[in-house]
Amino acid sequence: MAPSILSADFGGLAEAVGAVANVADWLHVDVMDGHFVPNLTIGPPVVESLRRHSGLYFDCHLMMTNPGRYLEAFRDAGADGCTVHVEIGGTSALIGRMRELGLRAGVAANPDTPFADLEPFLGDVDLVLCMSVFPGFGGQAFMPEVLDKIRQVREAIDRRDLAVDLEVDGGIDEETAALAAGAGANVLVAGSAIFGAERPWEAVEAVRAAACP
Ligand code: DX5
Ligand code: ZN
User: Fold this and answer.
1) Closest Cα to atom 6, ligand 1: which residue?
2) Does residue 136 have its Cβ closer than 6 Å to ligand 1?
3) 57: exposed, middle or buried (C-beta count within 10 Å: 0-12, 13-18, 19+)?
4) Which atom from ligand 1 is nearest to the alpha carbon of 61?
5) Edge-to-edge order in the sheet of strand 104-109
6) What pLDDT does 96 receive?
7) Which of 18, 25, 122, 194 is most buried, taking the most CB atoms under 10 A from its CB?
């Protein structure tokens, strides 16, 4: 379970992270540049501040046109893993740079980006992220049409016996968690389902329980 702080109160991020610290496996940090997606969120200074409050694994989802320029800053700020979108191109070089920096390396695909665009990188990454909404905003509805691609990625990971996490992000709640996990996801991101809940720690457990009945 990777709660996304995009849906937390940005005026109280440290408390929000504290609320899920004992139940979350990772913390999902949504970085938006106002260019690859029409929204602006978090940069390295916020990651650095949060690092002082949390020992969680920081899973940084870089929704950016030019993530290469900032990878070192995210690593220095305390990111554990970074994920770049395949739609921007230059993916091999970005994976190489993440490795050089000691970051766990991920590639992400938008809902309308086919499996074929991810396939060439499967052997070189630690994580594949299938977006189940168009990135930019929390609180959107899960797109079931992405389930086929999730199955394709899972099948390829298993067939090639790769140590790659398969993460699904967007519209995950108790209902859709079961669909994503059933299709092969082993890491689930959830924002509004967690931080929109009165007791976020219970919401993390509820979504996990729904995914692993
Ligand atoms: C969307 C972000 C997601 C978002 C998920 O662009 O990448 O991580 O926070 O939020 P929910 O779970 O509300 O769809
Ligand atoms: Zn995300």
Assistant:
1) 135
2) yes
3) middle
4) 7
5) 2-3, 187-190, 165-169, 127-131, 104-109, 81-85, 57-63, 26-32
6) 98
7) 194
Pocket test for ligand 1, best of 1, 6, 188 (most atoms within 8 A of CB): 6
Q: Name the token pair of 182.
A: 């059933």
Delimit the domains of the chain by residue range.
Answer: 2-211
Q: Is 39 in the pocket of ligand 1 (CB under 6 A)?
A: no
In the reported structure, the alpha carbon of residue 153 is separated from the centroid of ligand 1 by a whole-number distance in angstroms of 20
Q: Which ligand is nearest to the CA of 190?
A: 1
* CB of 156 shorter than 6 A to ligand 1: no
Residue 213: the pLDDT is 83
d(CA 129, CA 140) in angstroms, rounded, equals: 17
- Residue-wise pLDDT for 62-80, tens only, equals 999 999 999 999 999 999 9
Does residue 169 line the site of ligand 1, with CB under 6 A? yes
Name residues of the chain where pLDDT drops below 70.
Answer: none
Catalytic residue positions, numbered: 30, 169
Other C-beta atoms closer than 10 Å to the C-beta of 34 total: 13
Convert the pLDDT of each residue in 131-156 to its tens digit.
999 999 999 999 999 999 999 999 99
Angle among Cα 123, 25, 201 to the nearest 5 degrees reads 150
**pLDDT at position 93, please?**
98
Q: Would you identify the CATH topology of the domain 2-211?
A: TIM Barrel (3.20.20)
